[in-house]
What does this fold into?
Amino acid sequence: MREFAYHRPGDLQAAVALLADGESRPVSGGMTLLPTMKQRLAAPPALVDLSTIPGMAGVTVEGRTVTVGALSTHESVASSPEIVACIPALASLAGVIGDPAVRHRGTIGGSVANADPGADYPAAVLGLDATVVTDRREIGADDFFIGLFTTALAPDEIITAIRFPVPDAAGYAKFRSQASRFALVGVFVARFGPFVRVAVTGAAPCVFRQKDIEEVLARDFTPSALTRISIAPSGLNSDIHADSEYRAHLVMVMARRAVEQALGAPARP
Amino acid sequence: MKVELSINGRAVSADIPPSLLLSDFLRENCELTGTHVGCDTSQCGACVVHVDGVSMKSCTLLAVAMDGRSVTTIEGLAGTVGAELHPMQEAFHVNHGLQCGFCTPGMIMSAVDFAKRHPSPTEGEVRRWLEGNICRCTGYQNIVAAILAGTKAMHAPQGD
It folds into this structure.
């Protein structure tokens, strides 16, 4: 790792000010950023440690909205009684990120801000039409994820919380890389009354919605409704782990499993 | 940069560069070489320690970020129960839960955190928990047996 300056601001305003140079990077759990810096794929001049800023962790439920503080660890989301009760698919998704020691340190804000193409949380944020709350504004999920590791966040903008609307039913199915535990393909399915949202992670450079699966499920929210359609492999990732044809196939299989889970089947570990 | 933390119950203060990883700080500065570095890429889990009682990968933590925290390594584990061996260490010994032993410190630190959260676990739960701890000898059978026995011992009623 190259040397860098380290700041641990006591509040959000101080953190934003420290990021004003556009080169310094915020860090919370650091489960992605630190390995990236160790490989010298990133060499920021300074790290601004958000992990001790008060009031940015924890879960609150108000009406049909679950708000998760940006500093909440994956483990705290996976084991939150409120989330298990309101959006069990979100809890089970958090419980399959990385491994236990990573889940004890990694945070939802960090994962969403990083927008790794194989990360799990972006699928939940987009699939549930969540709102990303920052130090200065609120960003709808459809406007948040822009491309490979690219979001609508400004370089000095900090996520403070994610607000999830509670769906009528939701499920997440993931086919993971055995080595990295990232999603080769992960599909999040959520039904809000007559509307269905389907978000796919791992398959392309950026999480995306699959509108034709959404339309089919809006008419018939069953796994068997999906046996009649397929998706084109063009634009999907091809790498040593899986080519685009295989990923296209996995999208449909994971979508069916996600619907099964939304209809009450237990999540696969 | 100044950092003050507790390591195995002892107050430690040091002046270290921000880029120093907790694993290197423990091994090089504190001479606590029981914490092993296997992969250095957050995969293998040989470097797992407890931070405020929770298992984390010390190769992916900045030592300066541990300011004010309490770190327990494999060297300090037995001290937390005031015995020569922690019940989980004893269980690894009795069940021969190791071959070369390189992954063992991380396995045991992970296992202790697991046992605290799962008083009566299934074998499947143990195996899923070990996703982040890799045994290059692939000796998982005895490791799983050791963790099941160690968990039982940790939750056994006190006294003879």
